[in-house]
Amino acid sequence: MAIPARNKCDGHAAKAVGVFNSTKSGEEGKIVKIQDAEWTTVGQMWWAFVWRVVVIGTLIGLVVGFIFGFLGAIMGNTAMGQMMGMGFSMLLNLPVSIWAYRAALTKRFDGYQLALVAE
Known about the structure:
Layout: E1 6-9, E2 12-22, E3 30-35, H1 39-75, H2 78-105, E4 108-109, E5 112-113
Antiparallel strand pairs: 1-2, 2-3, 4-5
């Protein structure tokens, strides 16, 4: 359900876009406010994800590229080594991006935190 009023959350103006009453059997319900974040906060959330993917992905790419480039040079087919290195680097970067997304979920940003809320 939408709440049209503007609220203050830790000194930052944020428009509340939903309120959920989360209850589990045997537990007391908690009110969770879902709010629109400021663009600077969204930028911080995005950066928390991106820098992890770039740093770890680059390191994986360098190691895998070196290994397959070396093997390709030994076998006399450097093009195949390059293609195999690129393919395996992309494959290995998929779990890296999932890890980075999960790591970003644990951080706090200007009074906000990314969260998964069951409906």
